[in-house]
Design a protein that fits this description.
21% strand, 3 helices, 26% helix, 156 residues
Length: 156
């Protein structure tokens, strides 16, 4: 029980400064740990987290964005499927990629996924919080790619 409370305390970071130095890979791992009990056994979550440097960021906000993306990925998978979460350094950028085997969004909806309150009820998308958050004080570039030809899946 104390381990669970400790993980929750780390995840929410209520007793820490809003902005601090941490690794995005650590935040991703914490988010998956918190969500794991809610992810059905029919869905496999693979972590391919690179060793990333610590960055100055708002960890609570990044955790919220990662949680929103992962929960939506789970919701998008109707039967069995896989979610792959990866992080890496590409030049002077840190890249986080969350790929799922869900059916994806209609092209006309893609431009709205980073809006506050966006909800796609027909496709069970619930991005009503979280994706607009990392804008504050960051040069984050957010991108959504729908299903890749012949492969299915969605990439954020």
């Amino acid at each position: 029980m104390s381990a669970l409370i400790g993980r929750l305390k780390d995840f929410v970071r209520l007793d820490q400064a809003d902005q601090q130095r941490t690794s995005p890979s650590l935040l991703l791992a914490e988010t998956v740990d918190m969500l794991r009990p809610q992810i059905p056994e029919r869905i496999v979550v693979e972590l391919d987290l690179g060793e990333l440097p610590q960055i100055q960021c708002y960890p609570r906000e990044l955790n919220q964005a990662f949680m929103t993306l992962i929960v939506n990925a789970v919701d998008a998978i109707e039967d069995t499927g896989r979610i792959v979460i990866s992080s890496l350094i590409a030049g002077d950028e840190i890249r986080v990629r969350i790929t799922d085997a869900g059916k994806g969004l209609q092209p006309e909806r893609l431009s709205r996924i980073f809006e506050v309150g966006f909800v796609e009820r027909g496709a069970t998308m619930r991005m009503n919080v979280g994706l607009d958050v990392p804008k504050r004080g960051s040069s984050a570039r957010r991108e959504y790619r729908g299903p890749e030809r012949g492969r299915g899946g969605n990439n954020v």
